[in-house]
Design a protein that fits this description.
The strands form eleven sheets. The chain has a four-stranded antiparallel sheet with strand order 3-42-41-40, with no helix packed on it. The chain is mainly beta and 599 residues long. The chain contains nine helices and 42 strands. The protein has a domain at 26-157.
């Protein structure tokens, strides 16, 4: 049973099917329902590629794009067999995701639980033999690529999805949020009724309430740690509560108290630390011990409200921002203690602070027309490395994934991309201008593109060309563009506009971006987001509907399902496994929906 399919395309570049190549004196054969070329002995002598060691052949094919792998395996039976045995097509498709995203996808895959793996695939196929053939390879190094490729292909083959209500979660007051754990097996809600509820899905698919977390005031948010082992709730009573799983049950681990409202709360990426920030001028770091207990490790004090507190990607550093116009960076020592590395006090109110992917630099956006980069030195200290001047208030500044570029947004409706040189200096690469306020700007996961969204009714994609220049693509709407987001594989962009439309743009093989779909609603859009694997788009509108669009086997985007709610809703979220949807149905009621193939 071969999970791959010759005509499967996730970006439209593989279809229509390509006619088989003619290689002179050839005979013909059929593989996977398609004619392919079989070179005769004389022809094989001319094709030195066939004489290479199989390991070298695998390495060469591994450098190819998806469309090229598909074409190559149509050349002859030998290459078809090599590509099939090495799972080269699946690997090429999977390689489009950035390394951090591949790690995330691999981490949430329940490889030790066969039944859970089956439940990820069964909603989209009746072919049990196919399901079992995939699961049998769960110990192979290429399993994540094979599994996610197969699931994406099965979903693409579904013309439409059934949407069935699997659970109704009721609160006594408005529901503020509903969030899935990374593996999709749990859901946590937060409500104004002073409670959060954790629901878990059992093996037979039933969602069961597992615990209720109570506060003295409304619960504003509830989130899982990246590994799904812990939940933190934040309440307007000034507390945050950490709950963790012990022998399958959720128990309270720690209550963190502040004398003011919480401004932010976040787990570290490794799930071992929690960081809170409050209007009481304090930020607190809490950590998990080896025995599973949690305790407060450090209180970071400021002279005014702490606006935000953020962990570095490697979980070893923390940066806090305060209204007292200072920023502080703390680092964890080998003995587990947290020590202050630097206090930045230059009389500037910092609006945002973002770590680089390698956790060695922080870029600050400032109210006084500049962005500053601080970096870790060889002796472990932190010092200012670069000042990027602007002529207006800098609202945000972020690094790209590789740390080679910085993207800033200023209040004069401009986004700027700066290239960072090895000597620490910066060079302006391009200015992206809009006629009105910029709502968002972000890098693609592969750092090759930037997309902006503006109130001026446009979004712009800027792409780095091979010659070093940047090329701009304009996306127009009839209303302000609320957001513009890249897919996880960097090959698509989806916009959400106040004109009631979302637009999906796709990257073609020649580097151009073209419109591939328009998703229409009767009222303005609140959000438009991609699924974890990038194969679905979910839109949410104030018209009371959510729409799910997905790719077909030829790469086009079509409507797969519509979910109707009572009244305007704030957001809709897909689980990482791609077959559960959570959304408020009414102001105090949240529903979990299951997506499956339409029989």
């Amino acid at each position: 049973m071969d999970p791959a399919n010759n005509t499967f395309s996730m970006d439209g570049s593989l279809s229509p099917p390509i006619k088989r190549a003619r290689l002179g004196g050839e005979s013909s054969g059929v593989s996977a329902g398609r004619s392919i070329a079989i070179p005769d002995k004389e022809e094989k002598k001319k094709l030195l590629f066939f004489d290479l060691p199989i390991e070298t052949t695998h390495k060469i094919i591994g450098l190819l794009e998806v469309r090229d792998v598909v074409r190559l395996r149509q050349v002859c039976t030998h290459l078809n067999r090599v590509i099939k045995n090495d799972r080269a097509l699946e690997k090429a498709w999977y390689s489009r995701f950035s390394s951090p995203h591949q790690y995330q996808l691999k981490k949430i895959l329940p490889t030790k639980d066969k039944e859970q793996l089956r439940n990820w695939l069964r909603p989209f196929t009746k072919d049990e033999a196919l399901v079992e053939s995939v699961i049998e390879r769960r110990n192979s190094e290429y399993f994540p690529a094979l599994f996610y490729f197969t699931k994406a292909r099965l979903m693409a083959q579904c013309e439409t999805f059934n949407v069935d209500t699997e659970a109704v979660i009721a609160h006594e007051d408005r529901v503020n949020s509903g969030t899935f754990s990374a593996d999709g097996s749990h859901l946590v809600t937060a409500s104004w009724d002073k409670t959060a509820k954790i629901y878990g899905q059992k093996t037979h698919g039933i969602w069961v309430e597992e615990t209720i977390i109570s506060h003295e005031d409304g619960v504003g948010s509830a989130i899982f740690s990246a590994d799904g082992r812990h939940v933190v709730t934040t309440s307007f009573d000034g507390t945050a509560k950490i709950y963790g799983q012990v022998d399958g049950a959720w128990v309270e681990k720690l209550t963190i108290s502040h004398d003011g409202q919480l401004s932010s709360v976040a787990f570290s990426d490794d799930g071992r630390h929690l960081l809170t920030a409050s209007w009481d001028k304090m930020a607190k770091i809490c950590s998990e011990g080896d025995d599973g207990s949690w305790e407060e490790k450090l209180t970071i004090s400021h002279d005014d409200s702490v606006n935000s507190a953020t962990f570095s990607p490697d979980s070893r550093y923390v940066v806090t921002l305060s209204c007292d116009k200072t920023a502080k960076i703390y680092g964890q020592e080998l003995d587990g203690s947290w020590v202050e590395k630097i206090t930045i006090s230059n009389g500037e109110l910092n609006i945002s602070a973002t770590f680089s992917a390698d956790s060695r630099r922080v870029v600050f956006a400032s109210e006084v027309e500049r962005a500053r980069i601080y970096g870790q030195q060889t002796d472990g200290s932190w010092q200012e490395e670069t000042i990027i001047p602007h002529d207006h208030f800098v609202m945000s500044a972020i690094f790209d994934t590789d740390g080679r570029y910085v993207l800033t947004i200023t209040c004069n409706n401009k986004a700027k991309i700066y290239g960072l040189k090895t000597d620490g200096s910066e060079e302006e690469e391009i200015i992206i201008s809009h006629r009105n306020w910029i709502n968002s700007a972000s890098f693609s996961p592969n750092s090759r593109h930037v997309v902006t969204a503006s109130v001026d009714k446009t979004a712009k994609i800027c792409s780095k060309k091979d010659d070093g220049s940047w090329e701009e693509t304009l996306i127009s709407h009839d209303g302000g563009v609320r957001s513009a987001t890249f897919s996880p594989n960097s090959r698509h962009v989806v916009t959400a506009s106040f004109d009631g439309k979302a637009k999906i743009y796709g990257l073609k093989s020649d580097g151009s971006w073209i419109e591939e779909a328009i998703i229409s609603h009767k009222d303005w859009l609140r959000s438009a987001t991609f699924s974890t694997d990038g194969c679905l788009v979910v839109t949410t509108s104030t018209d009371g509907t959510s729409k799910i669009y997905g790719q077909t086997t030829n790469g086009s985007w079509v409507e797969k399902a519509v979910v109707t709610h009572r009244g305007a809703i704030k957001s809709t979220a897909l689980s990482a496994n791609g077959h559960h949807l959570v959304s408020p149905f009414h102001h105090n009621e949240l529903r979990i929906y299951k997506l499956s193939m339409n029989h």
